[in-house]
Design a protein that fits this description.
By secondary structure, this protein is of the alpha/beta class. The protein has a single domain, classed as 3-Layer(aba) Sandwich (Rossmann fold), CATH 3.40.50. A four-stranded parallel beta sheet has the order 2-3-1-4, with helices on both faces. Strand 2, helix 5 and strand 3 form a beta-alpha-beta unit. Helix 1 packs across helix 4, helix 2 runs parallel beside helix 3 and helix 3 packs across helix 4. The longest helix has 18 residues. The radius of gyration is 16 Å and the shape is globular.
Length: 176
């Protein structure tokens, strides 16, 4: 089954193929149509099953269909992706970057994680961003220090939500 049969635009299916995502995995086959239709979703699947692409592809489609993809001025945050680790944040950002590159138009993404200086992350938020990928603690730090607003937020993803809770982020998640 091709990605287009799941409701993804042909250009996005082509971008997926450029990243060696040729045929959808079982989790993608179940998740992508639900996300494209705006449904809430909870998915559990093993590592390496394609969960990240299962939500990134529909997020990119929503971004492509919005005015944000054509706008040159300040951007408003459409998606917030909470992750438990810097490594996962980098992996998600890399997938978005490469898929956007294959589309010929990338969303502006801010990666907000602890363990590094907050200043470059605050600078990356200037002019707004389309998507934020963050660990909960750093997200709260950035919100306290900047003009990052979520009044235009359309999608919240909690990637590896079980690990977020296992790693002690329950209080931060409640604040978010």
């Amino acid at each position: 089954m091709p990605f287009t049969a799941l409701g993804l635009a042909p250009s996005l299916a082509h971008a997926a193929a450029s990243q060696s995502l040729i045929a959808p995995t079982p989790v993608q086959t179940q998740a992508i149509p639900a996300i494209v239709q705006g449904q809430d979703l909870r998915a559990c699947a093993p590592t390496g099953s394609g969960k990240t692409a299962a939500y990134v592809l529909p997020l990119l489609q929503a971004w492509m269909l919005s005015d944000a993809a054509q706008r040159q001025g300040p951007r408003s945050t459409q998606a917030l992706i909470l992750v438990p680790t810097r490594e996962l944040a980098a992996q998600v950002a890399e997938l978005i970057y490469h898929l956007g590159e294959a589309l010929g138009n990338r969303p502006k993404v801010a990666v907000l994680t602890g363990g590094v200086s907050i200043n470059p992350q605050l600078m990356a938020l200037r002019g707004g961003v389309d998507m934020v990928i963050a660990t909960p603690g750093r997200l709260l730090d950035v919100v306290a220090h900047s003009q990052l607003k979520f009044h235009t937020l359309q999608t919240l993803v909690m990637d590896e939500a079980d690990r977020l809770l296992d790693l002690g982020f329950a209080e931060e998640l409640e604040q978010v």
